[in-house]
Amino acid sequence: MAEITSLLHGFGVALSPFNVMLMFVGVVLGVIIGVLPGLGGANGVAILLPLTFTMPPTSAIIMLSCIYWGALFGGAITSILFNIPGEPWSVATTFDGYPLAQKGRAGNALAAAFTSSFVGALVAVILITFLSPVVAGFALRFGPPEFFSVYLLTFCAFVGMSKGQALKTITSMMIGFALAAVGLDTVTGQLRLTFGFTELLKGFDFLIAVIGLFGIGEILLTLEEGLAFKGARAKINVKVVLETWRELPRYWMTSLRSSAVGCFMGIVPGGATPASFMSYGVAKRFSREGEKFGTGQVEGVVAPETAAHAAGTSALLPMLTLGVPGSPTAAVLLGGLLIWGLQPGPLLFQEQTEFVWGLIASMYLGNIAGLIVVLTCVPLFAAILRIPFAIIAPVIIVICAIGAYTVHTSMFDVYLMLVFGVAGYVMRKLDYPLAPLVLALVLGDRAEDSFRQSMLLSQGDLSVFFSNALVGGLTGFALVLLFWPVLAAGLRKIRGG
């Protein structure tokens, strides 16, 4: 098969000594980021993105994707040992992971979490390997109306998956659209909303916004909460790992089900957090020992960890093939590709074959590297949490400031980062989601261009978005997702009545 041949060539690219070194460095940095509450995958990738500007694009994206794998692994460590989710998607892991640690089975819980994470990510990478060329080939037939309908579907999916916060999701997204409109209008050449600041001619740099919203915003929130870390000691060795591996095969159906849920939620895009909760609920429903969930069941760790990693990894599929990120971290990686002059989408598979397959091959290798690192270094990573957060927080803020300044070597960007940081803190306090804002900021320009090109082609006729079965189906599905919260509420009232 052509995919196998291309993948083998990709392994040749990814297995260069420099790239292998970057994999392990990225995984270690990612685990540290995942372990520290107040950071996270999207934040870590955004903060460390400037470090990769001097690297070849393939090496840079390999390192950044491995930071992401490491962050996915690292979130489980604090959830199980300290009952503090290092990542939002690790919340479900605390339900059974922390009770297992309290029973003296912290090593078993961690081994189960890491192995399940590996399995979930592996399933998603296999899916990307065989599905992405098909999706990319299909997308080559897309015109402006089809691309706009895909963007619309992405935006509406965030609204439909908002779980009772549809208005807040829409509000956050509208702020992102407003920020995306700042700068030079690509169609008319007019300046928009720059207010006399020449630094805003190119608009708001998504990287500055992400560093501020996630990095600074999360640190401010964490400092306010005054985190203190007290948790179980982790003892993990070969005996514990082998003992856990002998136990895991009995949960093969849970792993399979959770992988399917995760891959679907990653592509839709629903995200790793709802995927982990959904798979935990499904596992509890179908398990023979469902009533014991929450008291320290290994199956209760397997389900959310498998789904979270499957979702986090499969979110890269629509980003690579359509240029539509399925998660905040994928949105940051998308911005990185644009900075390196690479245009994500169907043409990427034709014009940058070495880059694409080198990246996909590195997903296999980075996942293996991540499993090795976390299984051997858990006590070391857990010890990081013994450092007072009052020391860690200023270090993270300085790293954020350096990262923001490095983008354009401009102090204006550092001030903007602080403004976005305060905005991110306020939004989190008011329970407004940040992911829709980042998504709209990254995709807003492209969605607007596709919409205006469609209007020019159709001479202002909106029916162009229903002009054939493909674009009509995508647009119709998007509208259903947009109004799904209202439809669901109506259905509940009818059933209740």
Describe this structure in words.
- A two-stranded antiparallel ribbon has the order 1-2.
- The chain has one domain (2-496).
- The termini are far apart.
- The relative contact order is 0.18.
- The protein is mostly helical and 497 residues long.
- β1 (183-184) and β2 (191-192) form a beta hairpin.
- The protein is globular, with a radius of gyration of 22 Å.
- The longest helix has 34 residues, at 106-139.
- It has helices spanning 2-14, 17-35, 41-48, 57-82, 91-102, 106-139, 144-160, 166-180, 206-225, 238-247, 252-267, 272-286, 299-314, 316-322, 328-339, 348-351, 353-384, 389-408, 411-429, 435-458, 469-482, 484-496; strands at 183-184, 191-192.
Question: Topology, pairings included?
Answer:
Elements: H1 2-14, H2 17-35, H3 41-48, H4 57-82, H5 91-102, H6 106-139, H7 144-160, H8 166-180, E1 183-184, E2 191-192, H9 206-225, H10 238-247, H11 252-267, H12 272-286, H13 299-314, H14 316-322, H15 328-339, H16 348-351, H17 353-384, H18 389-408, H19 411-429, H20 435-458, H21 469-482, H22 484-496
Antiparallel strand pairs: 1-2
Helix pairs in contact: 1-17, 2-3, 2-4, 2-17, 3-4, 3-9, 3-15, 4-5, 4-6, 4-13, 4-15, 4-17, 5-6, 5-13, 6-10, 6-11, 6-13, 6-14, 6-17, 7-8, 7-20, 7-21, 8-20, 9-18, 9-19, 11-12, 11-13, 12-13, 15-20, 18-19
